[in-house]
Amino acid sequence: MKRSGLIAVSALAALAVQATSANGQVPEDPEANLVEALVVNAKLPGPAWWRISDGDTTIYMLGTLASLPKGATWDTSVLDRRLDGAFALILPPVGRAGVTDIPAMLKLRGKLKSDQPLDAATPELAPRLAKVRAQLGKKPEAYREWSPLGAGIMIAMDYQKTTRLDSGEPERTVGKLARKHRVKARPAGTYKAMPVMKAAVRDHSDEAGQLCLEGVLSEAEAGTAATRSAAAAWARGDVREAVAGPRNFQRCIRSLPGMVELEQRAMDDEVEALTQAMKTPGHAVALFSIRGLVAQNGLLDRMRARGFTVKTPGD
Hints:
Layout: H1 3-15, E1 49-53, E2 57-64, E3 68-69, H2 77-83, E4 89-91, E5 94-96, H3 102-111, H4 118-121, H5 126-135, H6 148-162, E6 165-166, H7 171-180, E7 185-187, E8 190-192, H8 193-203, H9 206-222, H10 225-235, H11 239-243, H12 248-254, H13 259-277, E9 282-289, H14 290-294, H15 299-305, E10 309-311
Parallel strand pairs: 2-9, 4-7, 4-9, 5-8
Antiparallel strand pairs: 1-2, 1-10, 3-6
């Protein structure tokens, strides 16, 4: 059994709670429109922070990116100060797949393969596939056994590895500082990844698979300049440039069955976790996708609708 097949299926588990979709149809982008009043650059050093408060509680919200370049540094002085005395670190919802899920993952692997060579299945994409293979240092036969969805996942993983993007940051740094301050981290929700993975792999349409592959190719073709520019902007608190980073791969995940419902559940759980935290006097720190924070009907929009005061990084 090739390890790459298991990794490909596992990648869906990692992506599951970050995505949106609608049963093989191309959905509208739920984060396309931003609340301009919330897109404000930071006055303090380092990344941008928003504040949610009521009479006796404040939650400091750090907007995050999906990944940072390996070795990237950023000013953690504000984070360090806000973790001091915090009663909690609230993290985004997470999807989990354990050892007992491995047999099911192995079964799903076969559904990411295709009897038809990839170039033959997607002849209109063959020139782009050849270019990206060369760009990633892969042989001409690389990805040929995968379906468009499987190839999209594998290319995305290889692209991230080649471009040295670290999907564990900035959360890893935040967690390390939280432990230093003895602040307990708690995710807003925890979901079993396998049901979502099964639906995404088993029930996705040919159109969704094609959309996945096209989105990943577009991201790889664009190179790392835009991604690194967005990361640098994030580190210096330039919100507008940070939220303008590449989002092509999100088109892939958004096209898969069950993802719209999962993202809605994740957002609802995050809002509920923050609302419950507001009942504890003092202050806490929370993390959430920076674009998800400032989007229309996004996290900050919803918290404000519940009657909480929301302050921008410029306040």
